[in-house]
Amino acid sequence: DIVMTQTPLSSPVTLGQPASISCRSSQSLVHSDGNTYLSWLQQRPGQPPRLLIYKISNRFSGVPDRFSGSGAGTDFTLKISRVEAEDVGVYYCMQGTQFPRTFGQGTKVEIK
Amino acid sequence: EVQLVESGGNLVQPGGSLRLSCAASGFTFSSYWMSWVRQAPGKGLEWVANLNQDGNEKHYVDSVKGRFTISRDNAKNTLYLQMNSLRAEDTALYYCARGGLWCPYWGQGTLVTVSS
C-alpha cells in the first residue's frame, strides 16, 4: 500500500498569513496513464470532507484561489496564500493512483 | 445540485451485520465510480471500497475484504455497503462519495457503532 505522510500535523497560523502543508508518498503517484492522482481535501469541524484540489494542482469548482497545489512524483504541497478564519479545519491529501486508495494522517490548521 | 444521502447506520453487536445505503441525485449516477470512506471517532479518513459504473469492478481495503460488499443499483440511483462480521474497529462515520480517482462530492455520513 502507498503510505501518505503529511507534515506538519498541526499548523497554528496568524490570520492573513500563508500556510503550507507537505504530503509525501512512499511510491511515485504517476499513473500508467501519465496522470498523477493526488488530491487535497478540507474537513471543517463537524462537516464532511470537501475537495479542494485534484490531480496535484487543479482547483475544484468554487474553491478560492488562495488555495494552490503543487508537486510531482512523491512530493506535494498545499498552500494557502492568506489564511482566513473559515480555513480552520483538518486537511488531507489522498492518492488515487493505486488501490487501496490512501489518505495522509491529516494536518490541523488553527488560528494563533 | 449533486446530493448524496447515506442511511442505515446503527448500533450493532460484534459479529452482526448492517447494510448502508447512499441515495444519489443531481447527476447521472450510472456514469460515475462511487466510493465508501469511513472516519473513526476523532480519527482520520480511511478509504473502504469503490466500484465502477456498472458494478463489475470492485476494490476493498484489506481490513474489510471478505466481510464487506459494495454494490449499486443504477435503476434506483443507490449505492450500498453490506457489512458482515462487524468488529469494534469498524465503528465509524461512513461517507459515500462520488468518484474513484478523486472525490468531488460527499454525503453527510451515517454512523455505525459496533458494541455489545
Kindly describe this structure.
The complex is a heterodimer of chains A (112) and B (116). With 112 residues, chain A is mainly β. In chain A, 0% of the residues lie in helices and 48% in strands. Chain A is built from no helices and eleven strands. The model of chain A has no long low-confidence stretch (mean pLDDT 97). Chain B has strands spanning 3-7, 11-12, 18-25, 34-39, 45-51, 58-60, 68-73, 78-83, 92-98, 105-106, 110-114. In chain B, strand 4 (34-39) and strand 5 (45-51) form a beta hairpin. Chain B has 116 residues and is mostly beta strands. Chain B contains no helices and eleven strands. In chain B, the strands form two sheets. In chain B, strands 2, 4, 5, 6, 9, 10 and 11 form a seven-stranded mixed beta sheet that branches. In chain B, strands 1-3-8-7 form a four-stranded antiparallel beta sheet, with no helix packed on it. Chains A and B meet through strand 4, strand 5, strand 9 and strand 10 of A and strand 5 and strand 10 of B.
Question: Characteristics of this structure?
Answer:
heterodimer, A: 112 residues, mainly beta, seven-stranded mixed sheet, four-stranded antiparallel sheet, 0% helix, B: 116 residues, 11 strands
What can be said about this structure in brief?
The complex is a heterodimer of chains A (about 110) and B (about 120). By secondary structure, chain A is mainly beta.
What is the H/E string of chain A? EEEEEEEEEEE
Structure classification of chain A: mainly beta
**Count of DSSP strands of chain B:** 11
Radius of gyration of chain B: 13 Å
Helix content of chain A: under 10%
- The geometry of chain A reads as globular
- Biggest chain pair contact, residues each? A-B, 25 and 23 residues
How confident is the prediction overall: mean pLDDT of chain A? 97
Distance between the termini of chain A: 36 Å
What's the total number of strands of chain A? Answer: 11
Record the SSE blueprint.
The complex is a heterodimer of chains A (112) and B (116).
Chain A: E1 4-7, E2 10-13, E3 19-25, E4 38-43, E5 50-54, E6 58-59, E7 67-72, E8 75-80, E9 89-95, E10 102-103, E11 107-111
Parallel strand pairs in A: 2-11
Antiparallel strand pairs in A: 1-3, 3-8, 4-5, 4-9, 5-6, 7-8, 9-10, 9-11
Chain B: E1 3-7, E2 11-12, E3 18-25, E4 34-39, E5 45-51, E6 58-60, E7 68-73, E8 78-83, E9 92-98, E10 105-106, E11 110-114
Parallel strand pairs in B: 2-11
Antiparallel strand pairs in B: 1-3, 3-8, 4-5, 4-9, 5-6, 7-8, 9-10, 9-11
